[in-house]
Amino acid sequence: MRRWGAQPSLPERVEKDMAAIAVIEHDAELMLRVREGDGASFAILLERHRAPVIHFLYRMVLNQAIAEELGQEVFLRVYRSRATYEPTAKFTTWLFRIATHLALNWIRDFKNERGQESLDTEMLDGAARQVRDVRANIEQTMVRAARLNEVKQAVEGLPAKQRAAVLMHKYEELDYAQIARVLGCSESAVKSLLFRAYETLRARLAHLSHDAGDEARRAQNLVQGAGKE
Predict the structure, then answer these.
(1) DSSP label at residue 29
(2) What does each of the 229 residues of the chain score in pLDDT, given as a tens digit?
(3) Residue 116 CB contacts under 8 Å (≥ 6 apart), including other chains
(4) What CA–CA distance (Å, rounded) separates 6 from 9?
(5) Burial annotation 29-39 (CB, 10 A radius, 16+ → b, else e)
(6) DSSP label at residue 55
(7) Which pairs count as long-range contacts for 46-49, CB under 8 Å and 24+ apart, including other chains?
(8) Which of 75, 83, 196, 202 has the fewest CB atoms nearer than 10 Å to its CB?
């Protein structure tokens, strides 16, 4: 098992890159089929990308019901745009551009009305699985959930564009050029957004770097994200 934070070997990186290229090409091929009227190909794209898009939207708008609604609108816009689709960029870049645009518009229009959920269900489910694996007691579970929630709240507290950049960079693994296309700005502007965001996160989560445990290491890994590329 590879140690937390260790870099993958060259063969592992090559294998991962080849797999990613295959997925990218397949997405574009599927969307071209959708353009020609193939509904089954659209269903495959929906099944493959719906969960990551909704998870991204939830992290942006902090409301599961709104994230679900916006997710439906994202794929509705994809389908409506099928006739003019051209594979000039990665399908996921185009997809996240639509999702980010909708999320930023919602935040702008309903900033004072948005509801916030107190706990991230997915994170808690993940923590529960870890608890079962190591047979941790209830006190350890509560500490773990609290630390995970601290990381979540720190990201949620970022300005909307910084939060979008961090989510795409750290969690969706988009590179600077892809994020720039999604946000409609230059790569240098993306780097500036990420630098400010990670500096803020580093300050907010500094106390976790002194703690032991997987959650503290995860927080430390997050705030070191500015050096990813």
Answers:
(1) H
(2) 444 445 556 555 545 544 544 555 789 999 999 999 999 999 999 999 999 999 999 999 988 999 999 999 999 999 999 999 988 878 999 999 999 999 999 988 876 554 444 434 444 454 444 444 444 455 555 566 666 778 788 888 899 999 999 999 988 888 999 999 999 999 999 999 999 998 988 888 887 765 544 544 555 555 555 444 4
(3) 62, 63, 156
(4) 9
(5) ebbebbbeeee
(6) H
(7) 46/75, 49/92, 49/95
(8) 83
Domain regions of the chain by residue span: 8-114, 118-229
Domain boundaries 118-229, CATH class: mainly alpha
Please tell me whether residue 98 adopts helix, strand or coil conformation: helix
Burial class (CB in 10 A: 0-12, 13-18, 19+), 74: buried
- Close Cβ partners of 131 (under 8 Å, ≥ 6 residues apart): 140, 141, 144
Assign domain 8-114 to a CATH class.
Answer: mainly alpha
CA distance 128 to 1: 21
Coil, helix or strand for 87? coil
Could you give the CA distance from residue 99 to residue 54 in angstroms, rounded to a whole number? 9
The pTM assigned to this predicted structure is 0.65
Give the pair of three-digit tokens for residue 195: 């630098």
Which tokens in the block code for residue 16? 């991962």
Picking from 106, 52, 98, the residue whose alpha carbon sits closest to that of residue 75 is 98
